[in-house]
Amino acid sequence: MNMILSLRRRKRVNRSFLGSFMLFLFLAVFGAFMALPLVFAINAAFKPLDEIFLFPPRLFVRNPTFDNFIDLVELLGNSWVPFTRYIFNTVFITGMGVLGHVIFASAAAYPLAKHKFPGRNVLFQIVVLSLMFSPAVTSIPNYMIMSWLGFVDTYWAVILPAFAYSLGLYLMKQFMEQIPDALLEAAKIDGASEYRIFWSIVMPNVKPAWLTLIILVFQILWGTDGNGFIYSEQLKTLHFASNQIIQGGIARAGVGAAVALILMSVPITIFIFSQSRIIETMATSGMKD
């Protein structure tokens, strides 16, 4: 017992009060700097037009108003496509894309992490290399595949490519590698099938990973506009509708600020309530390779 206490004392960081204060001050300054865009966006949504175009710009609003949100409601009320339709399209695409990606990424990561077969390392290296490519690089191949399948101008033209995001496969594989092999072997001895092991043992143990994956993919799909894949107005997303409003000219700058605040509020809220899961997953994955 004394030996354990002595080891803990050795691992304890020896930092003076001044050092702790300087570290806190350093983090506070950088944290405030990173929060500036969010603070500016919140204040811009409540600024009248004369404050929005004021130069030099002010960070905080002086005369807050709800006129931007009132004008937004009037614009959406005059649209021939109901605003609720844009919301439904966005929620459906986001929900189906997130669900499919988590299932496919987890199912593909399990054999890569826990089964040995020829070409396993080569496949994983291809997955890692695919992380280097931006969505703009793969947009043309995605469009060609969706066109061959006949899914252009449908929801599935946006949903199906989301199933194949390589980031989810990478995170799930790295996380599943930490599950003890003895646990899986014991389940096999008890007669559990591979599907039972996957759903009843593996997935519950990697819950922080797939919760993080839900958040990351949600943020990607929530901000998609389906540009190049969806042409019908009744299938457009909320992000596309907001872009149409913003492109109405400088007279709609305030409305555009209100739309930007509404769009960013949903993923930010989800991130705030689940940031511990993301930090846990990011700290765990990517360490072994």
TrEMBL record:
<feature type="transmembrane region" description="Helical">
    <location>
        <begin position="209"/>
        <end position="230"/>
    </location>
</feature>
<feature type="domain" description="ABC transmembrane type-1">
    <location>
        <begin position="87"/>
        <end position="274"/>
    </location>
</feature>
<dbReference type="GO" id="GO:0055085">
    <property type="term" value="P:transmembrane transport"/>
</dbReference>
<keyword id="KW-0762">Sugar transport</keyword>
<feature type="transmembrane region" description="Helical">
    <location>
        <begin position="122"/>
        <end position="143"/>
    </location>
</feature>
<dbReference type="InterPro" id="IPR000515">
    <property type="entry name" value="MetI-like"/>
</dbReference>
<comment type="similarity">
    <text>Belongs to the binding-protein-dependent transport system permease family.</text>
</comment>
<keyword id="KW-1133">Transmembrane helix</keyword>
<dbReference type="Pfam" id="PF00528">
    <property type="entry name" value="BPD_transp_1"/>
</dbReference>
<protein>
    <submittedName>
        <fullName>ABC-type sugar transport system, permease component</fullName>
    </submittedName>
</protein>
<feature type="transmembrane region" description="Helical">
    <location>
        <begin position="86"/>
        <end position="110"/>
    </location>
</feature>
<feature type="transmembrane region" description="Helical">
    <location>
        <begin position="21"/>
        <end position="46"/>
    </location>
</feature>
<keyword id="KW-1003">Cell membrane</keyword>
<feature type="transmembrane region" description="Helical">
    <location>
        <begin position="155"/>
        <end position="172"/>
    </location>
</feature>
<feature type="transmembrane region" description="Helical">
    <location>
        <begin position="250"/>
        <end position="273"/>
    </location>
</feature>
<keyword id="KW-0812">Transmembrane</keyword>
<keyword id="KW-0472">Membrane</keyword>
<keyword id="KW-0813">Transport</keyword>
<dbReference type="GO" id="GO:0005886">
    <property type="term" value="C:plasma membrane"/>
</dbReference>
<dbReference type="InterPro" id="IPR035906">
    <property type="entry name" value="MetI-like_sf"/>
</dbReference>
